Amino acid sequence: MGYATSGVVVALAATESRPDLATLAAIGAAPATRKRIVVAQAGTIVVIGTILGVLTGLVLAAALVLFKGNELTQVNPLWTIEVPWLVIAAMAVALPTRAVGAAWLATSSRLASPAAWPGEHQLHHVTSLQHAGPAPM
Questions:
Q1: Is residue 41 packed enough to be buried (19+ CB in 10 Å), middle (13-18) or exposed (0-12)?
Q2: Is residue 137 in a domain?
Q3: pLDDT of res. 56
Q4: Which of 58, 71, 116, 135 has the smallest CB count inside 10 Å?
């Protein structure tokens, strides 16, 4: 689930940053610079998401164990907190590494033309209507 969520969030962020990347290209930023920006953005999003996800999971697991432990009348050794630190560490390293690698591979050095951006033609149409002035009566 972490991979899917990371992929969706990074894809949305990349879609929203297309105009910014076009601006950088217009002022002369090298393609490698634009690619590094996209990769850094993906890495930041996934690292923050991974940290928050691991912390949330640990807190929820501890709450469940404490709740179930208080519910029982006698001590049950099955309801103890055993954190799989090796699995958590592997996941915390693997998820951001794979996301950054995928962003690096998926990001093209060349920009698509603005006409190919989804939804952009409506935006240009609306702004052209706004600049045309009021409609004659």
A1: middle
A2: no
A3: 92
A4: 135
Contact of 79 with 72, CB cutoff 8 Å: yes
**Number of other residues whose CB lies within 10 A of the CB of residue 35:** 16
Give CA–CA dist 103/56, Å, rounded: 25
| Confidence at residue 71, expressed as pLDDT on a 0 to 100 scale | 66
Query: Which residue range(s) make up the domain with 20?
Result: 2-132
Q: Looking at the domain assignment, is residue 57 inside a domain?
A: yes
* Paired tokens of 129: 């209507």
- Number of residues assigned to the chain: 137
Are 17 and 117 contacting, i.e. CB atoms less than 8 angstroms apart?
no
Of 92, 11, 97, the C-alpha closest to 57 is: 92
Contact predicate 76/86, CB 8 Å: no
- Round to whole Å and give the CA distance between 60 and 9: 23
Domain count along the chain:
1
